[in-house]
Amino acid sequence: MLILILALPPLLSEPHDVHRVSAGIFTISYSCAVAIPIVSGLVWDITKVPVSVFLPIGLCALAMIALSLGLHPDRHN
Q: Which residue, 48, 51, 52, 71, is most buried by CB atoms nearer than 10 A?
């Protein structure tokens, strides 16, 4: 995931906007890194099933796969 976070901004944006896209990607990724474990713990507390802790993580992975299908990177070099 870290490799994608570092590699995508130059591929997805104009050279003069790389810093803005990087900031957005870092904000979203680090917010998810904090929120998903909290949500996973909440799901475990509600369901009382330890395996359910992986449900939010799996849903997040599926969402990232679905969202990545809409990306069309341009090469600006």
A: 52
Q: What is the pTM of this model?
A: 0.66
Four-point Cα dihedral 43, 67, 64, 66, nearest 10? 80
**Cα–Cα distance, 42 to 48 (Å, whole number):** 10
pLDDT band at 66 (very low <50, low <70, confident <90, very high): confident
Q: CA-to-CA distance for 76 and 67, rounded, in angstroms?
A: 22
The stretch 23-28 carries a mean pLDDT of 85
* Closest to 64 measured CA to CA, from 32, 37, 38: 32
Residue 26, phi then psi, degrees to nearest 5:
-65, -40
